[in-house]
# Entry
Amino acid sequence: MSETRSTPTIGVFDSGFGGLTVLAALMRRMPHARYSFIGDTARLPYGSKSRRTVARYAAESAQFLVREQGAEFLVIACNTASALALDAIQDAVPVPVLGVIEPGAAAAHAASQSGDVLVIATDATVHSHAYKAACAAKNLRAYEKACPLLVPLVEEGWINHHVTDAVVRIYLGELTSDAAAAGMSADTLVLGCTHYPLLRPLIERAAPRGITVIDSAESTADAAAALIETVVPSASRGMSEPTEIHCFATDSVEKFERLGSRFLGRTTGKVQLVDLGG
Ligand code: DGL
# Structure
C-alpha cells in the first residue's frame, strides 16, 4: 500500500439499508474517499438467523467488497454480523475489519454516569450478549432487549409512521420497566442495530426523560477514521477527490435507490444488483 495515496477505498456492509447510517457518518468524517456499500437485501433479516448462517452470508459480502471492489478497509455496519461473525469475517479477508459493537460500548461508557445501560437490538444480537460482554469489559451493566419488528418497519420506509411510533413505545415501555425491576438505574440507551438511528426521533420521544441515546454509527465512524488515518493520513482532511459511492444490493435495487437516497441524505446513484449465491 503506497504511503502517498490520499484516497482510501472503504467497504461498508449491512444486511439492508440500515448501514447507510454508518456510511453517512463515515462520509462526514472522510469526505474524500471511495466507498463501496453492499446491502444483502435478498437475505435480510440477519437478526433472526443462526450464527453459522450469518457468518457465511457476512463473509461472502466481505469477500465481494475486497475481491471485486478493492476495499482496503471494511466497516461492518451491521450489529448482528458484528456480534455473531466478526471473527469469521476477519478470517475471510486480508484487510482490517471494524465492527460496530465495540465503538457502541465505548460511546455508552463515555455517556453513562450511573454505569447502567439499556441496549435495543435484533434477536440474534441480544442472544449473543455481545453488548453485555463489551459493556462488562468497561464496568458497565447492560440490559438488552430484542425489538424484532423495527427492522421490517424501517425497510418498509415507515420511519415516521404512527404504527412504528406505537411499536417503539411498547418496546421501550417494556424495556424500562423490566430493567427497573431488575434493579438497574439506566441513563443511557444504545441503538444496537444500524437500522434504529433512522427511528431516532421516535425513540427519543418515547424514551424516559434524562436518557442519553447512543448511535453506534457515529462512534464507529470515529473509530474507522482513526484507523484509516494511520494508513492513509490525509483521508479525513480531504484536499483531493470528491466522495465516490458505489452501492450494491442482492435484491430490490429500485427500492434501495428510492429509500436508500432518503436514508443517506444524498443520492445512492445507480444501485447494482449482485448475486452472492443462495
Ligand atoms: N442492521 C442490522 C443490525 O445492525 C440488522 C438487520 C437485520 O436483522 O438484518 O443488526
